Amino acid sequence: MIELKSPGELERMRRAGQVVARLLEHLAGLVRPGVRTKELDREALAFLRQAGAEPAFLGYRGFPATLCVSVNAEVVHGIPGERKIAEGDLVSLDAGAIVEGFYADAATTVMVGAVSAQARRLTDTTRRALDQGIAQAVVGRRLSDISHAVQETVEREGFGIVREFVGHGIGRALHEDPPIPNFGPPHMGPRLKAGMVLAIEPMVTMGHHDVQVLGDGWTAVTKDGSLAAHFEHTVAVTERGPDVLTRG
Ligand code: MG
């Protein structure tokens, strides 16, 4: 069952969302060659605490960090560590915050310096796929209208859309109903209602869409080693249209 949030709850989620938006903007400015991914993680935790928020990912099912940092062929759930960012990398940053018991979740992919034309196209397409998905988060549409819009945008460019990981409802918990696949036929699933809040998050690969999880139990990488990009927003469905709570 999909929980509907009251206007007061949406405002608390917006506060969490704005913290995540500011955090990702801040971190994106720190991503440069030579920076270790664990330094970004340390900065993320300090930033959240300073903002009066709690990290949503730290300790979630045992996840050991505040931030997911996924570089190049890593798709999602990369664990920050000793790795140094290099010129030409694609660095996906995924962050979640809790404010007054309510969650927000967002992700962005940062191009480090001069990336290949293909890597830029992958990144731009993933961002556009998220925008196209958000545009379907409208009262009266069905859930899979979002999924279909994302898939169409990605596959039209010849890229792969990941199946194993999906978007999700969000609110009093990081992951609520419904799961939101980034693929599938339109006009299926629950009808969208005002007060639903959805974390929409296309994960896109340059090659085949198959992924595998590494031995650390978290880091998902493309099976064929191709590059990946990931964008995410927490979006409220309202009578006035989609309201992106994590947009700065
Ligand atoms: Mg998410």
What keywords describe this structure?
28% helix; 248 residues; globular; five-stranded antiparallel beta sheet; four-stranded antiparallel beta sheet; Creatine Amidinohydrolase
Structure, explained:
The protein is α+β, with helices and mostly antiparallel strands. It has one domain: Creatine Amidinohydrolase. The chain has four helices and 15 strands. The strands form four sheets. A five-stranded antiparallel beta sheet has the order 8-7-9-14-15. A hairpin with a 2-residue loop joins strand 4 and strand 5. The chain starts with 6 loop residues before the first helix and ends with a strand. The model has no long low-confidence stretch (mean pLDDT 98). The structure holds magnesium ion. Magnesium ion binds next to loops.
Secondary-structure blueprint:
Elements: H1 7-30, H2 37-50, E1 54-55, E2 67-71, E3 74-76, E4 90-99, E5 102-111, H3 117-134, H4 143-156, E6 160-161, E7 167-169, E8 176-180, E9 197-200, E10 203-205, E11 211-213, E12 220-222, E13 228-230, E14 233-238, E15 241-244
Antiparallel strand pairs: 1-4, 2-4, 3-12, 4-5, 6-10, 7-8, 7-9, 9-14, 10-13, 11-12, 14-15
Helix pairs in contact: 1-2, 3-4
Bound molecules: magnesium ion.
